[in-house]
Design a protein that fits this description.
Strands 1, 2, 10, 11, 12, 13, 14 and 22 form an 8-stranded mixed beta sheet that branches. This protein folds into 3 domains: 181 residues, 3-Layer(bba) Sandwich (FAD/NAD(P)-binding domain); 136 residues, Polyamine Oxidase, Chain A, domain 2; 62 residues. The protein is globular. The protein is built from 13 helices and 22 strands. 49% of the residues are buried. With 437 residues, it is of the alpha/beta class. The longest helix has 26 residues. Keywords: Auxin biosynthesis, Signal.
């Protein structure tokens, strides 16, 4: 980006006014959203010697990193992020080690059962599916330009490859293959994955000492003056800068108003992203009523729910629990059906794998409906085909006083707790430069 003399003069004026803005402000910086990005940003700003207030619409911190304990003692599950992805560079690996939380690399788990229409697949069908995934992996490894959707990338392949592509995008990204950019998928970081028992609880505990105002959603940001004025139901806060970490689904829905409107480049970046619908449904199991069989994890294909591909995680970390994972339009339908309908469908899927004898073992359930959650509006960001640059564009500050951050702006770390954390720290570094630290 080339800086004109006019932009340099404007920047100097903003910096000159920043001292006056801070003098009249409630804090140097207001952070909107207490997910991993907002918490990481607030912690870094405070370490930099500046006052910070975090506004959070929910009654808890952590955002989409959330360990659900509603199913009772010994049945907690991560309703949001549960893996420390690309652990070699992910800050949460060392945080988890220091906290001595229970982890697993999941390498010794047996292969999941493959179920089609309630019938366990034959070995030939399993080999065909593995071959399909191999073909898709080769097609998506450094795909040729121009960018296109995953569906277009596999359009000329056989049915096994097309089905594998659908399963891949639904169960890893939470989206349909025609809406996923191959270039965006290719640029995501890879590496070792560490499964954490209570990732959300780890995030909340790590940042428990930060000043967060719970139950305080930001509804509008006025950035016409030298600083920012953030409106909430509990009054208006003034600060020199704002770090905005709410999910792009919330921004796209217009739940946070900006005066004046966000610049065209920022609005275009937001339009280049959408939210996936990765969804989990936890089912509490009564150990005394479980049938005497091997309760293996299962991949469910062509189920009774239209458009649904599901992964059934059985007894994670040995807990009497089943967690159904799904994504894409079938998951959206379950979220929109509400908890009662979603639990009934998840129980039916459980029965389709293990038989009717397991139905009495289900004693309660919980739907993690990120798609219909007004403070999320989806699970995590997906770049539309042809819009790879949207993530980087989100990093550009608005008038040197509004800084967007989160997993959506995390580049190769997108869609992860670790990526959100690193991007929150990146935004904090930009803020500290702006404040002269």
């Amino acid at each position: 980006m080339t800086l004109s003399r006019r932009s340099l003069m404007a920047g100097a004026a903003i910096l000159a006014a920043s001292g006056r803005a801070r003098a009249a402000a409630d804090a140097d910086v207001v952070v909107i959203g207490a997910g991993a990005a907002g918490l990481a940003a607030a912690a870094a700003i405070r370490r930099g010697g500046h006052s910070v207030v975090v506004l959070e619409a929910r009654d808890r911190i952590g955002g989409r990193a959330f360990t659900d304990t509603s199913l009772g003692t010994g049945r907690s599950f991560d309703a949001g992020g549960q893996y420390v992805h690309w652990a070699e560079r992910n800050p949460w690996r060392e945080i988890a080690r220091a906290a001595r939380v229970r982890t697993s690399d999941d390498a010794t788990s047996p292969w999941p059962v493959l179920v089609k229409d309630g019938v366990r697949a034959s070995e030939a069908e399993r080999r065909q599916r593995r071959a399909g995934f191999g073909r898709v992996s080769s097609l998506l490894d450094h795909p040729a330009a121009p960018d296109r959707s995953v569906a277009d990338a596999v359009a000329g392949e056989d049915e096994a490859a097309r089905a594998a592509a659908t399963g891949l995008t639904r169960l890893t990204l939470g989206e349909e293959p025609d809406r996923v950019s191959t270039a965006d998928y290719d640029q995501l970081w890879s590496g070792d994955d560490i499964w954490v028992d209570g990732y959300g609880a780890l995030v909340a505990g790590h940042y428990a000492d930060l000043p967060v105002r719970l139950g305080t959603p930001a509804t509008a940001i006025d950035w016409r003056g030298p600083g920012v004025a953030v409106e909430t139901p509990r009054g208006t806060l003034r600060a020199a800068c704002a770090v905005v970490t709410v999910p792009v689904g919330v921004l796209a829905a217009g739940h946070l108003r900006f005066t004046p409107d966000l610049p065209a480049a920022t609005a275009e970046a937001l339009d280049g992203l959408r939210m996936g619908a990765y969804t989990k449904i936890g089912l509490a199991l009564d150990p005394g009523r479980l049938p005497g069989q091997d309760l293996r994890d299962a991949v469910i294909l062509r189920s009774g729910t239209p458009g649904l591909t599901a992964y059934l995680e059985m007894q994670p970390f040995g807990k009497p629990l089943a967690v159904l994972h799904c994504g894409g339009d079938g998951a959206r339908a379950l979220c929109e059906a509400g908890q009662g309908g979603a639990l009934a469908a998840a129980t039916d899927h459980l029965v389709s794998v293990f038989g009717s004898g397991i139905r009495p073992a289900v004693t309660a359930g919980r739907l993690a409906a990120w798609w219909t959650d007004p403070f999320a509006r989806g699970s995590y960001s997906i770049a539309r085909p042809g819009h790879l640059s949207a993530r980087e564009a989100l990093r550009l500050p608005v008038a040197d006083r509004i800084f967007l951050a989160g997993e959506a702006a995390a580049g190769g770390g997108a869609m992860t707790v670790g990526g959100a954390t690193l991007d929150g720290e990146r935004a904090a570094a930009d803020v500290l430069k702006r404040l002269g630290s």
